[in-house]
Design brief:
CATH topology of the largest domain: Rossmann fold
Helix content: 25-40%
Largest sheet: 6 strands, parallel
CATH superfamily of the largest domain: Glycerate kinase, MOFRL-like N-terminal domain
Structural class: alpha/beta
Number of strands: 12
Radius of gyration: 23 Å
Distance between the termini: 20 Å
Number of domains: 2
Oligomer: single chain
CATH class of the largest domain: Alpha Beta
Shape: globular
CATH architecture of the largest domain: 3-Layer(aba) Sandwich
Length: about 450
């Protein structure tokens, strides 16, 4: 592939490499615990990758060794059975529920996970398969909260622009399954958690709100976050938080002795694979970071500034940019989108789109049609927010084509309508569910000789 011939095809190739690197089947074998010499092996789990993780475990686990359980994934995220599993009776049931706003199926799934965990006995092994998205998919409201309350809370957290750590701190203290409580239910069995990271810093306590790992955050932390975001809860629940009645299991609890946690895929590994693929094609690759956070459009503008500096350094100044073009700048992490309330107050329709496409709005605005720069941002799970696309692409003529299509970037930014903007110019990245999730992937290609 000649990079200059089709820059977007090149960027899409890097995205595909990053996703493939995070495939559960490609990464699980070396992380599996030994098959117990006696006792049963139970499987529980949740997340956008949980279905693929369960099928990978079924393929890799000896066919004659006991294995049973259930996991929950997002609707339409159950992968087709592989050829090796075709014709076999599934040993792990794959349930489906709503994401990012929970539903009754998520409540039923959480109840089933707890029931499986409580069946485990001494001498048994419990393997927990966790990935991003598990927070919404495992819904077990704390006393005093209804499903409707949890749905309202999740939507408020999503609209607030809160980071994933803050969101999951609140969730952990308003659940009977998150924040280590599912892990407690597994005792006295041996517990092994296999996780795919979708969070900055690969903090296993944040992945899916850490249902099988101890929690270092507190009720006081959750209260402070709710106050900062201006989110109210029923009075009895607020009182329970203030009293500490909803405190989560802490690391000092002896129940965690012997618990093993293994990360089988991370954002850094996927970015590294993409960088190696670019270098193999003769393009310098720079990994900016695997854990960038912040408002999506602002992160896009920052990337635009870096790309412009690399594309057009001042004459005679080789040190102006840290990046030597031609090159590709890669980054990951989890940005956020704060919904524009003023737009709704003015009667404007609520926009569609997720953080990857909104990053591309900021990137396009910041680049302002500079020649020789292309960009792609997409969520590695294949779904940007709640839409059908994984993300979007930006080209040197993005602004021109959008203008011709009758859409204004400023209007779309004002009401968070990144989906509408890129859909109008046929620049959405559509992959369908990828059955893994190592969060955002961003790649900016700089070819300064392209005028």
């Amino acid at each position: 592939m000649q990079t200059s011939d089709d820059p977007i095809k090149f960027l899409r190739h890097l995205f595909d490499v990053a996703v493939t690197r995070a495939s559960p089947l490609a990464n699980m074998r070396d992380a599996l615990p030994p098959v117990p010499s006696s006792g049963k092996t139970w499987v529980i789990g949740a997340g956008k990758a949980a279905g693929a993780m369960a099928q990978a475990l079924e393929e890799l686990w000896p066919a004659d060794a006991p294995l049973s359980g259930a996991v929950v994934t997002r609707y339409e995220h159950t992968p087709p059975r592989s050829e090796r599993l075709s014709g076999r009776v599934p040993r792990i049931h794959i349930l489906e529920a709503a994401h990012p706003v929970p539903d009754a199926a998520g409540v039923a799934a959480a109840q089933r996970m707890l029931a499986i965990a409580e069946q485990a006995q001494a001498g048994d092994l419990v393997i927990c398969l966790m990935s991003g998205g598990g927070s919404a998919l495992l819904t077990a409201p704390a006393a005093g909260l209804s499903l409707a309350d949890k749905q309202q809370l999740n939507q408020a957290l999503l609209d607030s622009g809160a980071g994933i750590g803050d969101m999951n701190c609140v969730r952990k203290h308003l659940s009977v399954i998150k924040g280590g409580r599912l892990g407690l239910a597994c005792a006295p069995a041996t517990l092994v958690t296999l996780a795919i990271s979708d969070v900055p810093g690969d903090d296993v306590g944040v992945i899916a709100s850490g249902p099988t790992v101890p929690d270092e955050t507190t009720c006081a932390d959750a209260l402070a976050i709710l106050a900062r975001l201006g989110i109210d809860l029923p009075a009895p629940v607020m009182a329970a938080l203030r009293s500490g009645a909803l405190e989560s299991p802490k690391p000092a609890n002896p129940i965690w002795q012997g618990h093993t946690v293994r990360l089988i895929a991370t954002p850094a590994e996927s970015l590294r694979a993409a960088a190696e693929a670019a270098e193999a094609m003769g393009v310098r690759a720079y990994v900016l970071s695997d854990d960038l956070e912040g408002e999506s459009r602002e992160v896009g503008r920052v990337h635009a500034a870096l790309a412009k500096a690399a594309a057009n350094p001042p004459s005679g100044s080789s040190a102006f940019s840290a990046f030597q073009a031609p090159c590709v700048i890669l980054s990951g992490g989890e940005t956020t989108v704060t919904m524009a309330k003023h737009a709704q107050q003015q009667g404007l329709p609520r926009g569609r789109g997720g953080r990857a496409a909104e990053f591309c709005l900021g990137l396009a605005q910041g680049l302002n049609a500079v020649p020789g720069v292309w960009g792609l941002a997409a969520d590695t799970d294949g779904i940007d927010g709640v839409e059908s696309n994984a993300g979007a692409v930006v080209t040197p003529d993005t602004l021109k084509r959008a203008q011709q299509a009758g859409v204004k970037l400023s209007d779309c930014l004002a009401r968070n309508d990144s989906y509408g903007y890129f859909s109008a110019i046929n620049d959405l990245v559509v992959t369908g569910p990828t059955h893994t999730n190592v969060n955002d992937f961003r790649a900016i290609l700089i070819l300064p000789d392209q005028k």
